[in-house]
Amino acid sequence: FKGGDTCEYLLSSGRFLGEKVWQPHSCMMHKYKNSEAKNCLIDKHVVFIGDSRIRQLFYSFIKLINPQVKEEGIKHGNIPFEDKSASIKVDFLWYPEVNGSMRQRIKSWTEGSVAKPHIIVVGAATWSIKINNGSNEALAQYKINITSIAPLLEKLAISSDVYWVLQDPVYEDMLSESRKMITNEKIDAYNEAAVRILNSSSRNSKAKVKVFSVSKLIAQETIMKSADGLHLPESSRDTNAMILMNVYCNKIMKPIDGSCCQPQPPLTLIQKIAFCFFTLSIIGYLIISLIHRNNYRKNKSCTDLESGEEKKPAISTPNVSTLEMLLQCFCKLGLIMTYFYLCDRANLFMKENKFYTHSSFFVPIVYILVLGVFYTENTKETKVLNREQTDEWKGWMQLVILIYHISGASTFLPVYMHIRVLVAAYLFQTGYGHFSYFWIKGDFGVYRVCQVLFRLNFLVVVLCIVMDRPYQFYYFVPLVTVWFMIIYATLAVWPQIVQKKANGNCLWHFGLLLKLICLLTCIYFLSYSQGAFEKIFSFWPLSKCFELNGNVYEWWFRWKLDRYVVFHGMLFAFIYLALQKRQMISEGKGDPLFSNRVSNVLLFVSIVSFLTYSIWASSCKNKTECNELHPSVSVVQILAFILIRNVPGYVRSVYSSFFAWFGKISLELFICQYHIWLAADTKGILVLVPGYPMFNVLVSTFIFVCVAHEISQITNDLAQIVVPKDNSTLLKRLLCIAGFFSGLHFFSAMQDQSRH
To answer: Which residue in the list 30, 231, 568, 630 is annotated as catalytic?
Structure first.
């Protein structure tokens, strides 16, 4: 990485992704909405000075503020624009030549107490070429005039943003006879003169006129679509206006997906404390490792000269080994978190916008499916949804979701609807897995709850601290955490009904069904009562966990989107385990789940249901309407897949070890992608190797998967230390954790106060 200012990259370099999407070099460009543009430019005065090309840019710029504006102004005259609601003034001043008149206007802003514009956009040359028939004398005069104007622009640049727009190339074949003298050779000569004079002027000055040269690159790709060979097509000038908006507004509005021109955020108090903690952990681990190495050398077994017997080395105490493991975990985690911070908070690595094409999504999908099938092995057990099968299911779903995110496929509605089913399937497994455990084991102890909560939340809590993000930002973890607690509360509350008790009396089955009906009623009520839902989660301390941007609407939306699927998973587990207990299904190796006739009918219905849902999802026209139906119908495709995967005996007896491996670290993959595979909190793509998109994806993916695997190992190791089986020790650890979160809340309050 060569370093440098991302603003300079935004103004000078980039490339097209497809036909209309401009990608600046090394950073991401935000697409400003009208409301955002108004908020940025409130009480601001913007001036465009130049010829008809600058007038084009002026109109595209004001359309970002008010899209209803029509290009009806005087062609060769000044055009004012004002948005009174936000006190924004944007003026176009007709000065088609760099001459004494333009100099006088610019000079007027530098004298006395005259109000200076906040943004000044200047550019002109084609009229000088046209009027003087492309003569060399005109170029010489242009150099003299721009030399006299440059110091004035530098003076204005001290308090205002000043941009000099270089001249775009022309499409010479389409130029009218009166413009034939405007050649690309002449335009290049004028541009070179402007750049040389402005750069030499700013060399000894702190203030600098910014050269807007990116328009030239855009025009080179699009000028052939021009109506007259001189003026840019509308899409190109709109891109220029959006670049201008990003240059000025990104440092004010700080959009997540607009990394260009954004300064590196300062370290928060909590981040500084985390940095000190990880540093001390690394130092502590190194010291203990050195001490242990020295002790090992001293106590190394050697032969006693008198007796001829071998002396045994001293055995280290368990406390020391536990401390060493703890420090080792935090040492590795500290190094990994440093990488996270450098990737997505420091302006060290490049970031790029996503751009969706069908091939960028479907080709990798086909590739990983072929790989998955290649690694087919026999399962250890042949039960429905056995461990290997559920790991496989999580694995391939996670890989598809990752490809969906990096390819930007959310813009394609049929893909979006199918991905929503995959997210729902994760939650279905949450309901199925936790219900099965509590129903069969009857273990409602604190240890089990703490183990699950720790494994689910450890990485997210660390990322909230290191990356300065709210808990709700990583929405999936809060979702599965809350649903786990709901499942636990449903089954643990009196009367506790488990399989062992229900086997003695069938009435307990009806009691459990009654509990499930009560749960369904509560879900139904909360999904249609946003006020009640928001009141529950607006109470402190829940509000600290579930608020995003000052409210819990995002949390309500996420919860509501898959509100029934966990219940469906619990109900499926109950029915399946009841059938299994009564030996109504056959789970032998190679045996169909039911009789041949029933199995064939179920298989046919499942395939038809699966395809019917896909056809419906592919015909979706409106995301809002489809999201409304999704909670009720997503279970159709999930159940269809389960039956297709489990009814035939052979299919149930094999699994893909490739997908299962990824399934074991699926949670870590889902969370880590936010910052070290994607960028700008999933809005863009991390670029470690600029200029080679495919190689970059290979490198960043390899690091990303290795990091996710390592974090999974660290979480498992720490879970054994932090959540012990001994109740008295566990209680002490819980008190320590409560103290930790109290301290975190205290420092967070201090942090918020200092920000305000």
So the answer is: 231
φ/ψ bin of 169: left (φ > 0), alpha (ψ from -120 to 50), beta (otherwise): beta
- Report the pLDDT value the prediction gives residue 443, as an integer from 0 to 100: 94
231 annotated active-site: yes
Task: Spot the catalytic one: 13, 52, 148, 614.
Answer: 52
228 is catalytic: yes
d(CA 301, CA 303): 7
Q: Which residues of 624-645 are buried (b: 16+ CB within 10 A; e: fewer)?
A: eebbeebbebbbbbbbbbbbbb
Q: Side-chain half-sphere of 658: how many Cα atoms within 13 Å?
A: 12
Q: What is the pTM of this model?
A: 0.91
Give the tens place of pLDDT for each residue, 247-275. Answer: 999 999 999 999 899 888 899 999 999 99
Strands 119-123 and 161-165: parallel
Active site residue 118: no
* Tokens representing residue 341 in the block: 């911070």
What is the number of other CB atoms lying within 10 angstroms of the CB of residue 617?
A: 23
Averaged over 396-402, what is the pLDDT? 98
Mean of pLDDT values over 58-83: 92
Peptide bond into 541 cis (omega under 30): yes
- Residue located via tokens 């279905």: 428
Per-residue pLDDT of 548-589, as tens digits, reads 888 899 999 999 999 999 999 999 999 999 999 999 999 998
Q: Which helix (H) or strand (E) holds 325?
A: helix 318-344
**Closest to 483 (Cα-Cα) out of 455, 519, 525, 447:** 519
Q: DSSP assignment of 435-480, as one string?
A: HHHHHHH----HHHHHHHHHHHHHHHHHHHHHTT--GGGSTHHHHH
- HSE value, Cβ hemisphere, 13 Å, CA-based, for 537: 23
From the list 5, 228, 726, 752, the catalytic residue is 228
Q: What is the pLDDT of residues 297-326, one digit of tens each?
A: 777 654 443 444 444 444 444 445 788 899
Radius of gyration of the chain (CA): 33
pLDDT at 310: 41
Is the pLDDT score of 38 beyond 90? yes
